[in-house]
Every structure is written in C-alpha cells, then in structure tokens.
C-alpha cells in the first residue's frame, strides 16, 4: 500500500514486532489484546486513541517510527478482564474444528 502512496499506521501492543516485520508506522499502546481502542462504551476515549493513532499519518518523520501513545489502561493487570464474557462469533462457528486440532507443547 505504501508503494502506491497509501500511508498506513498500526495500533499495537507489540510495536517492536511490527517494526521488525516492516510496518512503516506503529502507534504503541499498553491496552489488552482485543481492546486496542479502549473500554467498551467509552466513545470519547476510543476517539482519542484513534485520533492520536491517525495523527502519525500527518507527522511521522522516519520509516519504522514507533510512537508510544500517552494512554494508561484504567485497571491494574490483575483486575483487567482480558477475555470477553462470550465467545467470539468466528470461534463459535469453528469450535468443533478447533477442538479436533492436535495439541502442541
């Protein structure tokens, strides 16, 4: 996409990984996986995260730039609910197949 002059940015909790695989811009955030933009129903907070992420498209200066966003998850890691209350639709649809997969250690 970048070769076709379409700028990209990734919002990620793993910026070093994305930098290593060649992502041109990474907005780093220390939020739980699956909640990169914030808590459910926090429209204002989600908007702030997205606007800060998108701002990198305007002002990132170097390829491979990583910007650590200034947001903190409001719960301690021990209190955070890392898993949703219900199974995701794609997992639910494929659960029988997943259960048949060989386990690896």
Topology:
Layout: E1 10-12, H1 15-20, E2 25-28, H2 43-59, E3 65-68, H3 89-100
Parallel strand pairs: 1-2, 2-3
Biggest sheet features: 3 strands, parallel
**Overall helicity:** 25-40%
Number of helices: 3
Q: How big is the Rg? A: 17 Å
What are the secondary-structure elements, in order, as H or E? EHEHEH
Distance between the termini: 37 Å
Strand % is 5-15%
Low-confidence stretches: none
**Got a strand count?**
3
Shape: globular
Rounded mean pLDDT score: 86
What strand line-up does the widest sheet have? 1-2-3
Structural summary, described in words:
The chain has 105 residues and is α/β, with parallel strands linked by helices. It has a domain at 2-74. Helix content is 33%, strand content 10%. A 3-stranded parallel β-sheet has the order 1-2-3. Helix 1 (15-20) links the parallel strand 1 (10-12) and strand 2. The chain is globular and about 45 Å long. The termini are far apart. The model has no long low-confidence stretch (mean pLDDT 86).
